[in-house]
Design goal:
35% of the residues lie in helices and 21% in strands. The protein has 14 helices and 21 strands.
Length: 502
């Protein structure tokens, strides 16, 4: 009898594995767009374009949370540089200035029946910690071009977007072309601190004009190489949604005194315990957006990855554990918790009368800033800890992959490099596009640059840099996007590509 039971169990296991293996092969058809008759790549002076990006890196357009939140002159210098370096844009466009430092370029189209498009970037950058200056290969605001790379703060995030858009439009306008569809460029000045004085003001202005955009394209996605386990090919991820965020300040107030006579728990100790409680009680997970990305490119994954993803009824806990084991992928499946700022007393032998910390939460769609704060109160559950939320933005709606804007972005990526796979994904950081949800139901986030395991941590980190040829491809991408969306003559380079789905 035991042998029979063992035999039945063995047969059942074999059957389950067989079914799962078939699913691994069948569940993910090839969904990548096939480009027929691709156009030759645009010929441009990549070195000169790179030099202009390097030039603007030298303007330290830093924004920070605390007042004064910026120095005016670098932004004014940036404005003047754009006006001088792009004469065709300056002559054709109407330029609007918002709160002194944010810019909108308006390029009127000849056909008012076509809905306008909005293309975005931001001029501000994060600061550089003084303690890390000696760790940079080249000074962060020197604007050095070396070893085929453009080095400096803002090279990727996000002066590359601003300059690639200006380069692309200057190229088109210098050919004598005129847009059929109206185009708007929005360049915010305070994206790194939420965009409330820049992009938010611009969005209100657009709303006052009753503008509704065919699509909006901002930073946020890129071509990833070696960042998605199970794939050998590079994957271009287009942000169709982004997480929200909320900062929570935790404060513990105590009588204070000399450290030689401490209470059982000091303010710093109570605060530390609250932080540990939050870190030990992470938010629940969801594979919704991971599955969305994998559905688009799973056909090209290794068998092991396809087996796991196609059979989550069997492998779900293992898949989740593998994702959570990597800090980059973990934040894509849950609201993340990050303690970022701590403050106690001013001296080692003084008990703090006020100990404080800031915890930053990046919120998954489906939750809100309010629900996050409610959970924080429940998890800490300590009346000695004051909980003060500040600077909040709820997650975005999810834009469709069937819309014109997404399909145009996808087509141009595949045309520039057919070896690059394309997939939608959830942006884990925040962008200025969050202010424009009421002006379009098609909001996307992508810049045609490559991100590798070596460069991904340079965002807001040490040695931020962008390849000269990468920047050139970013310009080519925007030229194609503008040609195909907005200009009646789409044959700037000797032919028009066509595309078909598998």
């Amino acid at each position: 009898m035991k042998k029979r039971i063992v035999g039945l169990l063995g047969a059942g296991i074999v059957l389950v594995v067989a079914i799962a293996s078939v699913r691994a092969v069948m569940v993910y058809p090839d969904r990548q767009l096939v480009i027929e008759n691709p156009q030759p790549p645009l010929v441009l002076d990549a070195e000169q374009a790179a030099q202009r990006l390097a030039d603007v890196i030298r303007f330290p357009t830093i924004t920070q949370d605390e007042a004064p939140y910026l120095e005016p002159q670098p932004f004014i210098d940036f404005h003047n540089y754009l006006e001088a370096q792009y004469p065709a844009v300056t002559a054709f466009a109407t330029r609007h200035v918002f709160n002194k430092y944010s810019l909108v370029y308006e390029f009127p189209g000849t056909n008012p029946e076509l809905k306008p498009i909005l293309l975005m970037g931001h001029m501000d950058v994060v600061s550089v910690d003084e303690d890390t200056l000696s760790d940079w290969t080249h000074p962060p605001f020197a604007g050095v071009i070396s070893d085929g790379q453009i080095w400096g703060r803002g090279a990727i995030d996000d002066k590359a977007s601003v300059m690639a858009l200006m380069e692309a439009m200057e190229h088109l306008l210098q050919t004598g072309a005129q847009p059929e569809r109206s185009i708007f460029f929005s360049f915010g000045h305070d994206e790194e601190i939420g965009g409330e004085n820049g992009a938010a003001e611009i969005a209100r202005y657009f709303a006052s004009r009753d503008l509704n955009f065919e699509f909006v394209l901002d930073e946020g996605g890129a071509i990833t190489e070696g960042l998605m386990p199970g794939f050998e090919q590079p994957i271009a991820v287009i942000g169709v949604a982004e997480k929200g965020f909320v900062n929570v300040r935790l404060v513990v107030e105590q009588p204070g005194g000399h450290s030689s006579k401490p209470p059982a728990s000091t303010g710093a100790g109570i605060l530390a315990r609250a932080i540990v409680q939050l870190e030990d009680n992470q938010f629940p997970t969801t594979l919704k957006f991971t599955n969305m990305t994998f559905d688009a490119v799973g056909h090209y994954a290794g068998f092991g990855a396809r087996f796991g993803m196609a059979n989550q009824w069997l492998t779900g806990p293992l898949v989740e554990s593998a994702i959570l084991a990597n800090e980059s992928s973990a934040s894509g499946i849950r609201t993340s918790t990050a303690a970022t700022m701590l403050k106690g007393s001013s001296k080692s032998n003084i008990l703090p009368t006020r100990a404080s910390a800031v915890v930053n939460f990046r919120i998954m769609p489906g939750e809100t800033a309010e629900s996050v704060v409610t959970r924080v109160r429940s998890v800490i559950d300590d009346p000695r800890v004051s909980i003060e939320p500040f600077m909040a933005s709820n997650p975005s709606p999810v834009s469709s992959t069937d819309a014109y804007g997404y399909q145009l972005i996808e087509k141009n990526i595949r045309e520039l490099d057919p070896n690059v796979l394309v997939a939608p994904y959830l942006v884990q950081g925040g962008t200025d596009s969050k202010h424009f949800y009421g002006l379009s139901d098609a909001v996307y986030r992508f810049l045609m640059v490559r991100v590798t395991p070596e460069t991904v941590n340079t965002f807001h980190g040490i040695d931020e840099r962008l390849g000269v040829e990468d920047f050139a491809n970013g310009i080519r991408f925007f030229v194609m996007l503008l040609e195909q969306s907005s200009f009646p003559d789409k044959d700037q380079r000797g032919g028009e590509a066509t595309a078909k789905a598998h």
